[in-house]
Write a structure and sequence with these properties.
This is DUF1178 family protein. It comes from Hydrogenophaga borbori. InterPro entries: DUF1178 (IPR009562). The protein is of the alpha+beta class. It folds into two domains: 94 residues, no CATH class; 58 residues, no CATH class. The protein is built from six helices and five strands, in the order E-E-H-E-H-H-E-H-E-H-H. The strands form two sheets. The chain has a three-stranded antiparallel β-sheet with strand order 2-1-3. The longest helix is centred in the middle third of the chain and has 23 residues. The two termini are 17 Å apart. The relative contact order is 0.13. Bound molecules: zinc ion (ZN). The site of zinc ion has 7 residues, from loops.
Length: 156
Amino acid sequence: MKVLDLQCAHQHVFEGWFGSEDDFHQQLERGLVSCPLCGDQRVEKKLSAPRLNLRAGRDAPGAAHRPEGLTLSNHPAQAELAELQARMLKAMREIMVNTEDVGERFAEQARAMHHGEIERRNIRGQTSAAVALELLEEGVEVMPLPLLPAVKDTLQ
Ligand SMILES: [Zn+2]
């Protein structure tokens, strides 16, 4: 199993799990790899900083005279954002894996658990904002999740 840091054309950074690096290239060619955030299929392996520097040194005339690493630098804020995105996606995936999707029955199920009518388990689902507020007022622990349908797709 190989974990690759991948990046789509919109600079979303995410992890991809493949049997090997060849596996990744094959799946990419067959259009099976897409960004879990935006669905973009223009995915490539995230270039590491040293490789970026090498490329700049080769392509840019005169760059050889400059100290390495100055011609191209990672924008810290962007790197941080990408890191955050990657972490959020990972957390979302964990939630998806560890919860049962009860869809529209969410409020009903959450209430029943709160009142001890059914056994407690981790669930996720949909409800209106008004009902979510009601649940919170009743003391039912609910947490809003960002809507990321693409995350779910990557699980299959
Ligand atoms: Zn993307």
